[in-house]
Amino acid sequence: MILHVDMDAFFASIEQAINPRLKGKPLIVGSRNSRMHTVVCAASYEAKRAGIDSGMSSAEAFKICPKLEFVAAEQSKYIWTSRQIFKLLKEFGFELLYASIDEFQMDIRDTTQPGLLAEEIREKIFKEFNITASVGIAKNWLLAKLGSKLNKPNGVSILTEANLESVLARFPAAKICGVGKNTAELLGGLGVNTCLDLYQKSAQFLEQHLGKYGLNLYLSMHSTDSFDSLQEPENPKSISHSYTLPRAISNPQFIKAWIRTLSEMVSQRLRQDNWESYTVHLWLNGPEIGNFGAQKAFQQPVNDGLEVYQRCLKIMAKLGAKMPLVRAIGVTCSKLSKSSYAQPLFKEQAKRGELLKAVDRINSRFGDNSIYPAVIALAR
Amino acid sequence: MPDDSGYQNPDCLNQQIEVLALFKAAKILPRIFFWNNKIYKIKKVTYNWQERLGKETISYFSVSTGIDLYQISFNNTTYVWKINKII
């Protein structure tokens, strides 16, 4: 059996715990740059009830609810709280996995009273952090995750053999993790509307209509092997980072500093998992250029931020000499292959490789961004 | 200063302050802080968290005096207390 803990409106709840004046009020958490030119990172339940949700532009959110409270996001407190909750859950002595920054899964196969355990977990989290969590319990991770969403906020759902079908019949198939809008529409066309409809379909049916994903979905829904049914992560096809500026800007130094920042972020992740990339993609968005995106394939693969950045500049040259107004920037590295460990031919290359290793070691030991290229300071 | 909309002023104060705190059971419990020649009695620590900045670990506390809410921090390497902002 799996117990899935899902924190309720995690970032917004932490901000309400910090500032009790915000409790019970519609609240959104967004970028610190500008309250009116950001996207909603998290919304309190009061804001959600007004129709506001994550991903919406803050301007739209303020239009829906002019009395909305706004707090600038500070990642450090969310990351710290998440790690502390993980530590707290670890003390229960079960195998434990991080599902995301605000979701945790425990394998509780020998527990006789899972309901009591769920209550104890929720009480401890509330006592320690003054924020609430919802819990789902079921025979596998996918159904447990579904369960955690059925009684939100601050609730528990236990899906047993006895109630499973009646519970699944009450909710649309889109509630299942991984069933997005398009898949739900496709399934709807096939007469699969509820979670129960989906649960009762055969592996062949789901594979025929949804391909490999359909088969995985079937296996995940029907598994009783607890964590064994968690899918092994596949090799990534690409690694990317993007950033929306507080307003449209045409200052070339500032825009280049952001491209370098994103190039470094992408490269660091490439090196972390020992990848190199042959293709670099730059995406820019702005009022004059709309969505500009172009990619370039190179003979030599890279995982050095400086080289990714230089390749981005080559792509950007297509826009001409004058820098247009830019509102959002994205850098993607694709066509990935494992690093070859080949000895560099040139002394300079070897030195650069050693430098990158040293930078990664420093950042790993002393925390992200302990050391970074000076040009990035413009974007920080 | 905090405005009515609840927006937190991102312009940090980051001024050094003196703090009377209890270090108990591996926890830091700030009780009183002195800032701008004034004593602020802490009625409640509403939240606390930590952040690693280079080799330094910073412990943050959001503290209520019953009237106002402040964010203060303790640098675990330099032992310096700061007032970061009025929430």
Which short descriptors sum up this protein?
heterodimer; A: 380 residues; 4-stranded antiparallel sheet; 14 helices; B: 87 residues; mainly beta; globular
Would you write up a description of this structure?
The complex is a heterodimer of chains A (380) and B (87). Chain A is α+β, with helices and mostly antiparallel strands and 380 residues long. Helix content of chain A is 41%, strand content 23%. Chain A is built from 14 helices and twelve strands. In chain A, strands 5-6-1-7-8 form a five-stranded mixed β-sheet. The longest helix of chain A has 21 residues. Chain B has 87 residues and is mostly beta strands. Chain B is 0% helix and 63% strand. Chain B has no helices and seven strands. Chain B has a seven-stranded antiparallel β-sheet, with no helix packed on it. In chain B, a hairpin with a 2-residue loop joins strand 4 and strand 5. The radius of gyration of chain B is 13 Å and the shape is globular. At the A-B interface, helix 1, strand 4 and helix 4 of A face strand 4 and strand 5 of B.
